[in-house]
Design brief:
Number of helices: 10
Strand content: 15-25%
Strand order of the largest sheet: 1-7-6-4-5
Helix content: 25-40%
CATH architecture of the largest domain: 3-Layer(aba) Sandwich
CATH topology of the largest domain: Peroxisomal Thiolase, Chain A, domain 1
Distance between the termini: 31 Å
Structural class: alpha/beta
CATH class of the largest domain: Alpha Beta
């Protein structure tokens, strides 16, 4: 009997309609289109507008579209995992709320928080359930409303982030497709360079923390960049070496979309030409847990069954990782 692997059998994403352009940002803080493009490569980002809307609303739209696109009934779903660092509330889990909003009533669900590596960590967690043979249909959604924790008076961080959600359906595969290998790492000492200062159990919310603007993303950009540019590239190269993959074997690199220079460095380290690298950072910015599924969704029509795909991410924690999979379907069969 062939080994059961977990394969992505469907992909969908959703982004809000509102576009926050570099030109508009330049009227809010001391920045410019040229400055942002040179440093991170972002032209615009999508922002979720509206009272009472959160990450579950982004995730709901991505999951609803995924179920419709793949012909999956909500009752068929066994498990839903939501990767997010911007949950609707501290509890219950945003995954629980997405399940309720989409009619997924026969599954259990939970959140996973690993910042920009969250989707990869959630994808492998879900794969482990599928590989047991007991779980037939698992949904993984990366959803982040980053605008809710972005300080639009801070010129160093506000150009970086956008709002989006992306979701995949995982199902068992006994052919040569599916998730084959992964490498994940963490280094908690990196927390001092990238975090939110207040709102947790160490420093609960108060009038003082709100007045000090301590509920927004804090980042020491140069330190984060140096760590990310080395480690995301190295771990992608390491998974290639571990699986005896050469650059010509790889159809696509799907990198986390945080900074164009980090993406370029990862591609060079792997020996890949630009045409083998999925990039959409210019249109959406860093949507944290949503960047990788958002890329897969935009490039879906270029993917072919059997394509060797490498996913790579780096995020707060620090967290970073890479995954090797073979794509499981041709686009026309699931579009």
């Amino acid at each position: 009997m062939n080994k059961i692997r977990a394969a992505i059998t469907g992909i969908n994403a959703w982004v809000p309609e509102y576009r926050l352009t570099n030109h508009e940002l330049s009227r809010m803080v001391d920045t410019s289109d040229e400055w942002i493009m040179q440093r991170v490569g972002i032209k615009e980002r999508r922002i979720l507008k509206g009272e009472g809307l959160g990450s579950s609303d982004l995730g709901e739209m991505a999951v609803r579209g995924l179920l419709e696109k793949t012909g999956t009934s909500p009752a068929e779903v066994d498990l839903l995992i939501c990767a997010t660092i911007t949950p609707d509330m501290a509890f219950p889990a945003t995954a629980n709320i997405i399940s309720d909003k989409t009619g997924i009533t026969n599954a259990f669900s939970f959140d996973l928080a690993a910042a920009c590596s969250g989707f990869l960590f959630a994808l492998q967690t879900a794969a482990a359930y599928v590989e047991t043979g007991r779980y037939k249909k698992v949904v993984v959604v990366g959803a982040d409303k980053m605008s809710s924790i972005t300080d639009y008076t801070d010129r160093t961080t506000c150009p970086l982030f956008g709002d989006a959600a992306g979701a995949v359906l995982l199902e068992p595969s006994t052919d040569d497709t599916g998730i084959i290998d992964y490498l994940f790492k963490t280094d908690g000492s990196g927390r001092k360079f990238l975090h939110i200062k207040a709102g947790g159990s160490v420093k609960p919310a108060s009038h003082e923390t709100v007045d000090a603007r301590e509920h927004f993303v804090y980042q020491e950009g140069q330190s984060v960049f140096k760590f990310a540019v080395v480690n995301m590239a190295d771990i992608a190269a390491e998974i290639m070496q571990r699986n005896n993959l050469k650059s010509e074997d790889i159809a696509w690199l799907v990198p986390h979309q945080a900074n164009l220079r980090i993406i370029d460095a990862t591609g060079r380290r792997m020996g890949l030409p630009p045409e083998k690298i999925m990039i959409n950072i210019q249109n959406y910015g860093n949507t944290t847990a949503a960047t990788i599924p958002l890329c897969l969704w935009e490039y879906e029509n270029k993917l072919r069954k059997g394509d060797v795909v490498i996913l790579a991410a780096f995020g707060g924690g620090f967290t970073w990782g890479s995954m090797y999979l073979k794509w499981a379907y041709d686009p026309k069969k699931r579009s």
